[in-house]
């Protein structure tokens, strides 16, 4: 599979774009509720390290499905948006497969670009628990929006 060229005005500024996306993630108000850190090591790949604790549990003592969705969607989203340097992408659909209950501890969500090069993209993600086992996976479609990344608080290159 060949990655598309990043879309936007500064193809050579991929590292600056990745760091700006990481700042955008950290600035999002929803991330005050989740202890997490985004890392974009290369185009089409994003890793988010989360810490799950009892605040995210349902009545039976494991992470609620909203936590799974948040982690998987974010990882796939940022993997895709790493390839779009001028616009914010939007999740238009996302499917989840939950395979293992998550208890307290560290979790890594790893997202990857799968396909798409212009307007609509497909991304996937998986959750890996502290033992190295997969706890869930998801696949989503994402669409370029009309929202310029540069207009968003938190997205600052340089």
TrEMBL record:
It comes from the Bacteria. Gene3D superfamilies: Hotdog Thioesterase. Residues 61-135 form the Thioesterase domain. One of its GO terms (molecular function) is thiolester hydrolase activity. InterPro entries: HotDog_dom_sf, Thioestr_dom. Coiled coil: none annotated. This is Uncharacterized protein (TIGR00369 family).
């Amino acid at each position: 599979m060949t990655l598309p060229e990043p879309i936007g005005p500064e193809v050579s500024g991929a590292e600056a774009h990745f760091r700006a996306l990481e700042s955008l993630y950290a600035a999002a108000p929803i991330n005050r509720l989740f202890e997490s850190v985004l890392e974009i090591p290369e185009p089409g790949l994003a890793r988010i390290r989360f810490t799950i604790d009892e605040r995210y549990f349902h009545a039976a003592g494991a992470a609620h499905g909203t936590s799974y969705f948040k982690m998987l969607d974010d990882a796939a989203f940022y993997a895709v948006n790493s390839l779009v340097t001028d616009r914010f992408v939007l999740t238009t659909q996302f499917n989840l497969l939950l395979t293992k209950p998550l208890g307290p501890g560290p979790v890594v969500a790893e997202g990857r670009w799968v396909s798409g090069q212009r307007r609509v993209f497909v991304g996937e993600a998986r959750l890996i628990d502290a033992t190295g086992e997969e706890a869930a996976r998801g696949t989503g479609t994402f669409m370029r929006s009309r929202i310029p990344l540069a207009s968003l608080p938190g997205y600052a290159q340089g």
